[in-house]
Structure formats: C-alpha cells, structure tokens
TrEMBL record:
<keyword id="KW-0521">NADP</keyword>
<protein>
    <submittedName>
        <fullName>Uncharacterized protein</fullName>
    </submittedName>
</protein>
<keyword id="KW-0735">Signal-anchor</keyword>
<keyword id="KW-0560">Oxidoreductase</keyword>
<keyword id="KW-0812">Transmembrane</keyword>
<feature type="transmembrane region" description="Helical">
    <location>
        <begin position="12"/>
        <end position="34"/>
    </location>
</feature>
<keyword id="KW-0472">Membrane</keyword>
<dbReference type="InterPro" id="IPR002347">
    <property type="entry name" value="SDR_fam"/>
</dbReference>
<dbReference type="InterPro" id="IPR036291">
    <property type="entry name" value="NAD(P)-bd_dom_sf"/>
</dbReference>
<dbReference type="GO" id="GO:0016020">
    <property type="term" value="C:membrane"/>
</dbReference>
<dbReference type="Pfam" id="PF00106">
    <property type="entry name" value="adh_short"/>
</dbReference>
<keyword id="KW-1133">Transmembrane helix</keyword>
<comment type="similarity">
    <text>Belongs to the short-chain dehydrogenases/reductases (SDR) family.</text>
</comment>
<dbReference type="GO" id="GO:0016491">
    <property type="term" value="F:oxidoreductase activity"/>
</dbReference>
<dbReference type="GO" id="GO:0005829">
    <property type="term" value="C:cytosol"/>
</dbReference>
Length: 191
C-alpha cells in the first residue's frame, strides 16, 4: 500500500498537474468564448414547438412566459387544468401564436407517452422539452407519513428523463434540447 501511495504522489501528481496546467486554460478560454457567443447570438425560438411539463405554476409557468415573449408555440402540461388555462391565456397575450393545454400526470408512464404523441400529432414536431414537473413537500421528517408519495415524486423525474435517452426515431425532437429541472423532497428534522 505504501508503494502505491508513493507512486501516486511521486509520478501521478506531477503528470496530473502538468496536464491540468496545459489543458485547463485553453479549455476555460474556449468555454468563455462559447458562452459569449451564446449570449450574443441567442437561439431564435419563434414558431418552435416547446413542451413544458409542470407549467401550471412556479418555474414552469415563468419558463412558459419567457418562451411566449419570444414567439414560441407552446404545449403546456400539468395536473391542474384551470391553472394551465390561466397560464395559456397570459402566454397568448405575451405573444405566443399557439398554445395547447394538456392535463396529465407525468408520474404515470402511459400519460407521458400519450401527451407526447398528442402534441407531436398536433404540431407535427417537437423542438424543445422542458421537464419541470414535480412535487415538493416540506415538513418535519418525524411527522411525514406519506412515504408512498416519495415514489411518485421520484418517478416524475424518471419517466420524463427517460425520454432523454430515446433516439431521434423514438422521440421526435429536432434539436437535442431537453431541459430537466431537479425535483426534491424536503424534510426537516427536529434533532
């Protein structure tokens, strides 16, 4: 074991530092140039089809408004249809030429497949997918009793994130832009 530690400290450390010093500055410089280019030349999303899950409130709602301001055609998915209608109305006022509202629960695989197919059949394509659906619960761990809800919270991410691994033949997204918003279960402990 001492021989391994000596090898790692004497041989690998200088090699690692040398490689880091040689490649890291150009990499960071290129990354800076890339981010600069992206901030100057933003993607034109006018008339692109954007599917947003969890669009009835919070982050999903405001992502829908930002896309609407840029003229994107929106497909909004959430469980609360009344809230979705309000978001859709405001998105139309902000400049979205076409907004489709779909009531669905992304924790159910069949509903995920159904609304993706429904949206692709309606618009003929899907350019961006913003996977924002989720459930958050904040409570003391000692009083949390709905452990079955944890599975549905986590499966929201799993079902929609599984679309990311699909080939272009299985998921008709023209670009590779699939955004996943992290979901979590917050619990507090009294200790």
């Amino acid at each position: 074991m001492d021989l391994l530690h000596k090898f790692l400290n004497i041989v690998l450390l200088p090699i690692t530092l040398t490689v880091l010093l040689l490649f890291m500055p150009p990499f960071l410089f290129l990354k800076f140039l890339w981010s600069l280019k992206r901030s100057i030349y933003r993607e034109n999303v006018a008339a692109k089809v954007i599917l947003i899950t969890g669009a009835s409130s919070g982050i999903g709602e405001y992502v829908a408004y930002e896309y609407a301001k840029r003229g994107a055609r929106l497909a909004l998915v959430a469980r609360r249809e009344d809230r979705l209608q309000a978001v859709a109305d405001r998105a139309r006022k902000l400049g979205s030429p076409e907004v489709v509202v779909v009531r669905a629960d992304v924790s159910k695989v069949e509903e995920c497949k159904q609304f993706v197919n429904e949206i692709v059949n309606y618009f003929g394509r899907l350019d961006h997918l913003v996977n924002n659906a989720g459930v958050s619960q904040i409570c003391l761990f000692e009083v949390f009793t709905q452990f079955s809800d944890i599975a549905s919270i986590m499966s929201c991410a799993v079902h929609m994130a599984s679309l990311r691994g699909k080939s272009s033949h299985e998921l008709p997204v023209k670009t590779s832009l699939i955004f996943n918003v992290v979901l979590s279960l917050h619990t507090l402990s009294q200790s």
